[in-house]
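Hi R.,

As promised on Friday, here is the backbone we talked about, encoded as structure tokens. Could you run it through your design pipeline when you get a chance and send me back a sequence?
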């Protein structure tokens, strides 16, 4: 999809990757509705975009995982800009540690990292099929192709997000619906530096696995992926090699990951 003159919705756009994607889409000529639970932050990002690209960005405080909120955002976008052509399901949470005993934390991770994508697609895909064009971008993670050391909820829900995007592409890709799945490793966002969100082991795994990219670098890859119709968008190209190694010898890969995890735990636990 060429994004110029298209109408886009970007969730989780109050900072980080979402904000950078919204900036990049507007610079390429799209009209963008930015959403976030933080109404003040997302309004500020929209104002920045508007100052550079007038009449290209509007903000809406919204819960990306709530079905009625999704409906409201899409109705708002349609009223202000026209039918939604592109939906970037970018909002995500790094909730939970290890097996995570709290069911509410699992529910949060499932809602934001997976069900938000499903609910948005259910709302938009029928109209895209009827029109013969539409594009869905799901922000997952390299954890969805590999794993996330330290957090079962994050790893499981990101795997599920990749699986859902893949299913969308298989089912509707020949009916005018484009699908991309974004799977970066470490990105320099608030999430990476949030001690409450990531355990020491998880944070160290992310920071040592490869170069930490800026949100703007990821956004550039996302735009290129949308415009080329690429399903798997890998801002860290080395993830593809890791994924191939995993598929080539799963047991060997698991043993290697076990050793890597043990090293990380030893570095973060002074008693070991």
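Update: got your reply. Pasting your designed sequence below so it's all in one thread:
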């Amino acid at each position: 999809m060429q994004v110029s003159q298209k109408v886009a919705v970007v969730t989780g756009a109050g900072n980080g990757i979402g904000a950078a994607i919204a900036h990049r889409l507007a610079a390429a000529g799209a009209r963008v509705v930015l959403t976030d639970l933080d109404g003040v932050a997302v309004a500020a990002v929209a104002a920045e975009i508007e100052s550079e690209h007038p009449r290209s960005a509007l903000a809406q405080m919204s819960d990306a995982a709530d079905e009625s909120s999704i409906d409201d955002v899409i109705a708002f976008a349609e009223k202000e800009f026209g039918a939604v052509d592109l939906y970037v399901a970018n909002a995500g949470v790094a909730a939970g540690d290890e097996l995570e005993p709290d069911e509410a934390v699992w529910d949060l991770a499932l809602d934001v990292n997976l069900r938000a994508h499903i609910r948005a697609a259910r709302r938009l895909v029928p109209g895209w099929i009827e029109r013969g064009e539409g594009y869905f971008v799901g922000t997952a993670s390299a954890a969805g192709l590999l794993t996330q050391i330290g957090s079962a909820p994050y790893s499981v829900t990101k795997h599920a997000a990749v699986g859902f995007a893949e299913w969308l592409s298989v089912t509707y890709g020949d009916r005018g619906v484009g699908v991309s799945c974004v799977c970066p490793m470490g990105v320099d966002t608030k999430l990476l530096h949030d001690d409450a969100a990531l355990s020491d082991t998880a944070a160290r795994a992310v920071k040592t696995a490869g170069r930490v990219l800026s949100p703007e670098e990821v956004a550039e890859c996302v735009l290129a992926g949308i415009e080329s119709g690429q399903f798997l968008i890998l801002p860290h190209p080395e993830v593809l090699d890791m994924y191939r190694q995993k598929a080539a010898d799963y047991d060997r890969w698991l043993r290697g990951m076990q050793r890597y995890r043990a090293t990380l735990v030893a570095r973060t636990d002074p008693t070991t």
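One thing I noticed while checking it: The two ends are 52 Å apart (CA to CA).

Thanks again,
M.
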